[in-house]
C-alpha cells in the first residue's frame, strides 16, 4: 500500500514540475481578475433578495433554486480575490 502511494506521489510530482496553470485556468484568471470583487458580493445579495421575494410570493421551488446561487457567487468572489492576491496581474 505504501509503495503504491509513493508511486502515485512521484507521478504527481512529475506531472507539472513548473507548477504552471493550464490554458483554461489562465484564460479564466485573465478575465476574472478584471472584475471587482464587489460584483460577486452584490450578485450573492441579489440572489438572496430575489429568493426571499419568491418565498413571500409562495413560489417555494423557485425561491430555493435562486437562493442556492448565493454560495456559488461568494465562492467565485473568493476565487477572484485569490487570483488578484496571488498576483496574476503582476505576472502578465
**Residues in helices, as a percent range:** over 70%
Termini separation comes to 43 Å
Following the backbone from N to C, one meets helices and strands in this order, namely HHHHHH
Structural class: mainly alpha
**Average pLDDT figure:** 84
User: Helical stretch count?
Assistant: 6
**Any idea what the radius of gyration is?**
20 Å
The percentage of residues in β strands lies in under 5%
Major sheet attributes: none
Shape call: elongated
Low-confidence stretches: none
**Structural domain count:** 1
Number of strands: 0
How would you characterize this protein structure?
This protein has 92 residues and is an all-alpha fold. The protein has one domain. It has six helices and no strands. The chain is elongated, with a radius of gyration of 20 Å. The N and C termini lie far apart (43 Å).
Characterize this entry briefly.
This protein has 92 residues and is mainly alpha-helical. It is 79% helix and 0% strand. α3 packs antiparallel against α4 and α3 (38-56) packs antiparallel against α5.
Amino acid at each position: 500500500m505504501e509503495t503504491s502511494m509513493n508511486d502515485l506521489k512521484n507521478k504527481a510530482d512529475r506531472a507539472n514540475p513548473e507548477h504552471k496553470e493550464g490554458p483554461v485556468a489562465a484564460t479564466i484568471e485573465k478575465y476574472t481578475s478584471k472584475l471587482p470583487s464587489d460584483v460577486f458580493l452584490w450578485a450573492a445579495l441579489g440572489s438572496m433578495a430575489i429568493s426571499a421575494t419568491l418565498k413571500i410570493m409562495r413560489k417555494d421551488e423557485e425561491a430555493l433554486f435562486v437562493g442556492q446561487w448565493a454560495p456559488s457567487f461568494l465562492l467565485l468572489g473568493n476565487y477572484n480575490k485569490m487570483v488578484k492576491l496571488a498576483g496574476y496581474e503582476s505576472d502578465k
